[in-house]
Design a protein that fits this description.
Largest sheet: 9 strands, antiparallel
Distance between the termini: 41 Å
Shape: globular
Number of helices: 16
Radius of gyration: 29 Å
Helix content: 10-25%
Strand content: 25-35%
């Protein structure tokens, strides 16, 4: 799920009668002492007070401490940053818009939060201390008895990936406290347990509400994001218009010198060229897998910098929820360019899964900033790998030498990239051409441990080495490149490399010019059937094409925020289905579309209909213990159906190329945002640029109706279709009919295609503008059709009764 790095702001301590309490803080240069104090606040010796109707208000958040005791930790670097409360209180929050209200209703069955609280911890660098101090009378002493609660909550926050301490640390050392302001509260409620509310000035959506619950595997703690929205009444589209507006730094390029071993160890020296975007910062936060332990970080002059990283999370294969905080001896200057040199190594990031079989992580293996898909950087990579193995990486190969038992290869990105990755192993390499694009398959010569076990226990499956399917795989990927170039425009790189993942890693990943593909997709149909994998199309043609299309969706065109990521996965879902049409038939394509629609109407284990969990625009916030597969179902399948609907609206059955208008739209989108990030609103503008009369239902040359319902909203309409055919004489026939809608609000709008059937010929008669719950149509024909039908090609996301 999307995890906020809760941010923090500094403020000056009140000067009223607190001088005796505000002990001399550590000097600003003693960042190590500050770090330790923030990690384990010593509440003993802090200030305490009895409270009576104390209020804390942050945008739409209102916390009332009705009665009880509040205690603060002593200040650090002159800043009071933590407090603990026990007693009686209340939390009240109202959502800012219908989308957030819908999400809150899904989790809480209410459209606002109004709940008692009995305990709370506060972490802050804004005006919280002043606000509370003005409303209480201080007690004479403090024993620190409530201080343990803050530590308990911090442990819980760390377990779900909330990087509170580094964010707090950043704020404490910042010279621009207003820009870095943070308010964070963990609040205990009687019905839902612990909630987390925040107002974080460094998050594009400053206001957040999350819920902790034990619904993960083995009872692990997970979180639901109940609400996340910008403060001050701004829209998320406005907040993310410039996705870098609140970032400290911009990464221009990487020089990575990495070593990988037969024993699955990874070590690297990574030089990162950065430009500071803000002045006055002393802490920058990166993402790096915690299994890679940093040895040192050097500045431009080769001087060591102070740094902090979390404890190792041995089960984590990515950088999700993990951080690396780098401390500068002096505040940053705006627009200053510098190079940082990171030295790190670890044993658990790469996994060996059999002779010559390695899993190499696609992310987390070098220091990154959050939301790297919104930006691009240059990459120069040098790898030292075992002799006898083959290593493949993103970018163009610029050199290869052998030094004893070590193979040294160098790679350089031809254009700036969002991310970089690599793979190595004992590969068989097969090459195919798709026009000027070289397609290389890197298939393991030997089965991985699990496949080898299956091969030994089931003689009938034959040789399960991925290398056996390398040649047909090359042909299929080359075909996919040809199809997508036809629809979306030029392939963005010089080559496409495809590697096989060990079967225990059941996923695929499309990186720039490099695909990681589950090795089960390298089996033939009979082998998959023998080991119980039934959906051959899903695991072969569709799966390969889906990952290939990410060269366009995610890389050629990135996304500005988590709200826009549906355009990557949803468009890739559509692309996989589109390839099925060319690989199989239009009938099979429509069948895949139908299966996607049906998946949306299914219910999860808790009885939630997937499509109702939230709109595609909600993105990663759909990941929740309340509906574990909602993200995959809604983002992928509904996202793909949205693009399918637009295709069918633009489809011209009488044209020489029926998809001409759709291709022009998609190629325009790719060209306009070539190697850039796009938002949902950016895509909507491109759609409106290519709008045709049938789509302009509201007569304003906009697609507000479509995006309002299918992108920003939920709901699948049901239509009942009735018609009659009457002879009018002189070879004329009159067709009259009615379409009746249910299951969605009365203001719903659709354009529904009517198809006419005569013998073996089917044609589109036209569209019914269903702008009301009941829509009628009347048309004259010079022949009597056999029958009429609605939505034959699943043109609109709807359930049809006819």
């Amino acid at each position: 799920m999307r995890t906020k790095l809760f941010h923090v702001v500094l403020f000056s301590v009140l000067l009223f009668s607190l001088a005796a309490w505000c002990q001399v803080p550590p000097p600003a240069s003693d960042s190590a002492a500050i770090w330790q104090a923030l990690q384990r606040p010593a509440f003993a010796g802090g200030k305490s007070a009895s409270v009576s109707n104390v209020t804390i208000e942050r945008d739409r958040i209102k916390i009332t401490l009705t009665s009880g005791t509040i205690q603060f930790a002593p200040p650090v670097n002159g800043i009071v940053f933590a407090g603990v409360f026990r007693g009686m209180g209340r939390l009240q929050i109202t959502p800012p818009n219908p989308i957030e209200a819908q999400q809150l209703n899904f989790f809480l069955k209410k459209e606002e939060i109004d709940t008692p609280i009995s305990e709370a911890t506060f972490t802050f660098t804004d005006k919280t201390f002043e606000d509370i101090a003005a409303q209480v009378k201080w007690a004479d002493t403090s024993s620190g008895e409530l201080g343990g609660l803050w530590g308990e909550r911090q442990q819980q926050r760390e377990s779900v990936g909330f990087g509170v301490v580094p964010r707090l640390f950043k704020s404490i050392l910042s010279t621009d406290r207003a820009k870095a302001a943070l308010f964070l509260a963990d609040l205990k409620t009687p019905d839902k347990g612990w909630l987390n509310v925040s107002d974080d000035a460094l998050d594009e959506e400053e206001i957040g509400v999350a819920h902790y619950q034990n619904k993960g595997p083995g009872g692990a703690l997970e979180t639901d994001t109940w609400m996340s929205f910008p403060g001050g009444g701004r829209s998320s589209s406005d907040a993310y218009a410039d996705p870098f507006a609140k970032e400290d730094y911009h990464i221009h390029g990487y020089q990575i010198d990495a070593s990988v071993t037969r024993g699955a160890e990874l070590g690297a020296t990574t030089k990162v060229k950065l430009e500071s975007r803000l002045a006055g910062e002393r802490v920058w936060i990166f993402e790096l897998n915690s299994n890679l332990r940093v040895d040192k970080i050097l500045d431009d002059q080769g001087k060591p910098l102070e740094f902090y990283q979390p404890r190792e999370r041995k089960d984590n294969l990515t950088s999700f929820g993990e951080w690396l905080a780098v401390v500068f001896p002096a505040p940053t200057e705006k627009n200053a360019v510098r190079t940082l040199e990171f030295h790190y190594a670890g044993k658990r990031v790469i996994r060996q899964e059999g002779p010559g079989n390695y899993f190499c992580p696609s992310s987390g293996w070098y220091p990154q900033k959050r939301n790297s898909f919104a930006s691009r950087a240059d990459f120069e990579l040098t790898f030292h790998s075992p002799k006898g193995f083959t290593l493949i990486a993103t970018g163009d190969k610029t050199g290869e030498t052998l030094d004893g038992n070590t193979l040294i290869t160098t790679w350089k990105s031809g254009i700036p990239l969002a991310v970089a990755g690599f793979a190595y192993g004992d590969y068989k390499v097969i090459t195919e051409k798709a026009g000027n694009v070289e397609v290389d398959i890197y298939a393991n010569r030997e089965p991985d441990d699990i496949m080898n076990m299956i091969q030994r226990s089931a003689v009938a499956v034959g040789n399960m080495s991925p290398a056996m399917m390398a040649k047909p795989m090359a042909s299929e990927f080359a075909n996919a490149v040809r199809v997508f170039e036809n629809y979306f425009g030029p392939y963005p790189y010089k080559r496409l490399a495809v590697t096989s993942l060990p079967v225990s890693f059941t996923y695929g990943q499309g990186w720039p010019g490099l695909i990681y593909l589950w090795s089960a997709s390298f089996l033939d149909d009979q082998q998959r059937h023998q080991i119980g994998l039934r959906d051959n199309i899903e695991l072969t043609d569709f799966f390969r094409a889906h990952e290939t299309s990410h060269m366009w969706w995610g890389h050629r065109v990135g996304w500005k925020s988590y709200h826009d990521q549906w355009m990557s996965e949803g468009f890739a879902q559509f692309s996989g289905n589109l390839y099925i049409q060319y690989r199989e038939s239009m009938k099979e394509y429509v069948n895949r579309i139908k299966l996607d629609r049906q998946a949306l109407t299914q219910s999860d284990a808790f009885g939630h209909r997937y499509e109702s969990v939230g709109p595609v625009w909600m993105g990663l916030r759909l990941i929740s213990p309340e509906s574990p597969r909602a993200y995959q179902t809604v983002i992928y399948k509904k996202g793909g159906l949205i693009l399918h609907m637009l295709r069918m609206m633009l489809y011209d059955p009488r044209g020489q190329d029926p998809d001409k208008r759709f291709k022009e739209m998609m190629q325009d989108f790719c060209k306009t945002f070539d190697n850039k990030a796009a938002s949902t609103e950016d895509f909507k503008a491109i759609v409106e640029k290519h709008i045709i009369n049938a789509m302009d239902v509201e007569k304003n040359h906009r697609m507000d109706w479509f995006f309002r319902q299918y992108v920003y909203g939920t709901g699948i309409p049901r239509y009942e279709f009735r018609y009659e055919i009457k002879a009018e004489g002189e070879g004329q026939w009159r067709i009259s009919g009615k379409v009746t809608r249910s299951g969605v609000p009365d203001n719903w709008i659709d354009i529904l295609p009517i198809y006419i059937h005569q013998g073996n010929v089917t044609g589109r008669l036209g569209f019914v503008n269903a702008t009301q719950p009941t829509a009628e149509f009347n048309v004259a024909l010079k022949f009597k059709p056999d029958k009429l039908s609605l939505n034959d090609f699943e043109d609109m996301l709807a359930e049809i009764k006819q």
